[in-house]
Amino acid sequence: MSQDKILVIDNEMEIIQLLRLYLSREGYQVIWTTDSTKALPLTQKENPDLILLDIVMPGLTGYEVCRRIREYCETPILFISCKGEDIDKVLGFSIGADDYITKPFSPSELTARVKAHLRRRNLSNLNDIRYQSQNTLSFEQIVIDLNAHTVTVSGRPVYLTAKEFELFVLLCKFPNRVFTPKQIFDHLWNSYGIEDDFRTVMVHISNIRKKIEADPEHPKYIQTVRGVGYKFVI
């Protein structure tokens, strides 16, 4: 049985009970709160392997909770929300969410997505241990520690979310190679059964540029090949 711990943050007790029922059947340890203001201390205390987070809540919104968690933690965050407009999803991804599930949702689909995110997280952790001797990528002013999941630019630490880091590493491992948005999306998201949404790729590319480029409007490292895709230039 799985020992992974999942934190559920939702002000609807019915949703929490439903998630506890289905996730517990899969062997997950489920902890929860209906109070969004308790989300941060609970995350720090329990160190969950994955977080399911509602958006519309009294106190702190899910967006604000996600933003604050991302200041110190790379734990996968899946939004579950009745807000289903494209702008809501783009905003969710832009502040660091790894997935976005719209209410009402299929419990079996949500469980499948949880499994996929945890499988990838656990595989990533295993690979980090297995390849500690090959854990650094260096390009001029950029150094990527694959084991510690850290990036420095000109000696300055740069914080990337889990998905931003994964995308950045993909580009950096194949410098000067052009990746189409579909290739990037398939690599980072399609194993979760998410429909193609290449705007998600655009948002993540934009976020990475803002963090690593001296001039994000005229990027030096992550360049756009018009009509084709993106490449990391050295």
Automatic annotation (TrEMBL):
Keywords: DNA-binding, Phosphoprotein, Transcription, Transcription regulation, Two-component regulatory system. Residues 134-234 form the OmpR/PhoB-type domain. It comes from the Bacteria. One of its GO terms (cellular component) is cytosol. Gene3D superfamilies: 3.40.50.2300, 6.10.250.690, Winged helix-like DNA-binding domain superfamily/Winged helix DNA-binding domain. SUPFAM superfamilies: CheY-like. Residues 134-234 bind DNA. One of its GO terms (molecular function) is transcription cis-regulatory region binding. The modification 4-aspartylphosphate is found at residue 54. GO terms for biological process: regulation of DNA-templated transcription. InterPro entries: CheY-like_superfamily, OmpR/PhoB-type_DNA-bd, Sig_transdc_resp-reg_receiver, WalR-like, WH-like_DNA-bd_sf. PANTHER family: REGULATOR OF RPOS, TRANSCRIPTIONAL REGULATORY PROTEIN YVRH. This is Stage 0 sporulation protein A homolog. It comes from Sinanaerobacter chloroacetimidivorans. The lineage of its organism: Bacteria, Bacillati, Bacillota, Clostridia, Peptostreptococcales.
